[in-house]
Amino acid sequence: MAEALFQIAEPGQSRSKHACRTRAVGIDLGTTNSLVAIVDAGKPTALADEHGETIVPSVVHYGGDGGVVVGADARDRLAVDFPRDTIASVKRFMGRGPRDAEATRKLTPYQFFQGAGDQSVVRFAVAGPRAVTPMEVSAEILRVLRARAEEALGGPLQGAVITVPAYFDDGQRQATRDAGRLAGLEVLRLLNEPTAAALAYGLDKQAEGTFAVFDLGGGTFDVSILKLEEGVFEVKSTGGDSALGGDDFDRAIAEALLAQAGAVDTADAHVVRRALDAARALKEALTVRTEVSVEVPFSPGRTATLRLTRDEMEALVMPVLQRCAAPLKRALADAGVERGHLSGVILVGGATRMPLVRRFVAEWFGQEPLADIDPDQVVALGAAVQADMLAGGAGSDDVLLLDVVPLSLGLETMGGVAEKLIHRNTTVPCGAKQTFTTFADKQTGFDLHVVQGERELVAECRSLARFTLKGIPPMPAGMARLEVTFMVDADGILRVSAREETTGQEAAIEVKPSYGLTDDEVERMILDSLAHGEEDVKARLLAEQRVEADGIVAAARAAMRDAPELLEDGERNEIEGALAAVETARAGSDHHAIRTAIETLDHASKPFATRRMNKALEKGFRGRDVDAVDVKLKKVGGKK
Amino acid sequence: MICWSCQKQAGTAPLCAACGALQPPDDAADLFAVLGQPARHAIDLPATEAAYKEMSRQVHPDRFATADPRARRASLARTVQLNLAWQTLRDPIKRAEYLLLRAGIDVAEKKASTGNSDKGTHKVAAPPAFLLEILELNDDLAAAKRAGDTVKVAFMAEEMRTRARESMTAIAAALDAGAPGKLEEAARSLVALRYYQRFLDQASDGDGGGGAD
Asked: What is the pTM of this model?
């Protein structure tokens, strides 16, 4: 991206290639950011791009020309100009139906596809015009990570472990697995994020005892209580809120900003995007500063001065953060552990960088939390360890992971009551059987409604699936005996089968979520992507390089305009020449040529960039800080 | 049993005696036997847990992620059974219920059977006099809660906890006594214990206040 050229002194480091390691990777498919990691020489390592950047922002842009751009360019540039076609935080929509989406739609810039009545999956209406599902959007992110890993490992992958919030329900898990399949990955396991973090901590720090993992990401909150002992990682309980995270902080701040600017009712997609981006930038700036003041042009001719102190921001965010308390309490109660008796509290997720969040955690648990493994990386590192072990790497005989079902699973019975077959916090894999009978004479079929949740009434639980067992001969009420079997595998995914005992009539389904893709749809999407695979990859690489070229050219021009006094003799000509070469290459369709031209420009402008950086540093810490804030906010409001 | 992989006699261990392939479990296996424990209420919990973890290490799906689909199915089924066994044996109430079920007495809470089969089992109900007593206690508790009398609620809960504890001790002794009449007694006490538990849930419900603190 643009600023990287002038801020990062070191180019991407070359990666060593070992022959004797598994080619299984761990992927943290996050709400805000995603990462891929491998185990290299016995140590988990996050893989970086050519700029040394390990994080891929989970933002996907769909261009009018059919191209797709993923990552920082999509987030920093395209989201501003094309808010509707640039999907961020797609994880919040995984396994959700149009009606759920409606609920999260408040203050999102997206447009949802209004298709035929039987649409059971959320679809975003984007440029093209196309209607894409959350699984397809996630698959785009996964493809980028897969390509990065294949390049680093020098060949196709054996498989991947993809992490999910522990509190993800069955539908959200299936959606994630489907996204992996769409991206051409062999999904070895879905691993719960707090468990992944504990695995990374436990192995790296030789930790033993009972730990809480506090995982507050962009869009989800998880808490898990684990016992670590002699290589056994046993989850005692888990809890959370799959719709609570840093995004909600941003939204709370953005709503306040819009209210301050008097633009609540007039907010269109662009304004909403800017307000959300401004909120994120303010939140991040207020992590180190105590007050930020900024002008944001909300629309042509309408600029608002927005000022926020850290105290004010914390007051806006606190009500959202308080929502963590109830799941925390329940997780501890379910584990049978007292708050004060924990060996440690592990912090995971970008939102735990906020001083307010750390204070909250420290006060709640009565001890300083642990953050010595980068909270942004720890989940991917743990997933890499698990992937390596599943593929038969070293240490696989020493470690045992025992995870649990996050939410109870049951069936609807008479009167709309949910009969639980598997209770929350049961160790997976697990199974349960229950016998039901008919309530009407001559009933020849059973309607089975599978639900997930803790509430007594079906209406208050999440509906997972419905299916029917037919062909039962007419019998008096209460005579038929229907045996229903639930089986939850190690991924936390449920299969249900039913059998009428007197006739032997059987029905078995892998519960397809009410709001998911059918197997046929997944197959079709995979076939489509295979057919266009080659072209897709090329089109994508080209689109990405073009976007990067635009960014770098603009940044270089701006830098020369801003600080001409720092240019040495002949340097301007050299940079101008390199700039022209980038523009020529950009007009062509060879992504390698664009890459080469960008690297030449990078090389030519490096001394100049270094001088500029030093100058900025001379202004001292405070000055640089202000600078950084200005840059961020300019990007937010810079374009009309 | 014939091994699915080498077609020879597999033996009774999880792994085939001839080729080492993981064998599916016997669905009808006794849960005490699954963890290698004697079938009685007084069991050595640490030893049982150690056995559970040791066996889990051998058969867990994490060991078979890239194995033959048949081995993977066997691993899943084995681990489901192990988890069920440990979940049943680790909890004193579930352990007692299971011991009774083995003896043909079904004290499961649900109307329908949760075991392998409900053929040949009979059900136990609480005597009416006991139900009346519990009903009155519940009314008293509700009244104390409505009045905000936290001292009385705490006192009633403590009394009930003592009763539940004594009841559990008696159940354990009755189950391991080996006399047929004792099993019926244990079954009745188990049903009563469930009412005590519900009373305690009621007593603690909502006493935590807001979670924010």
From this structure: 0.77
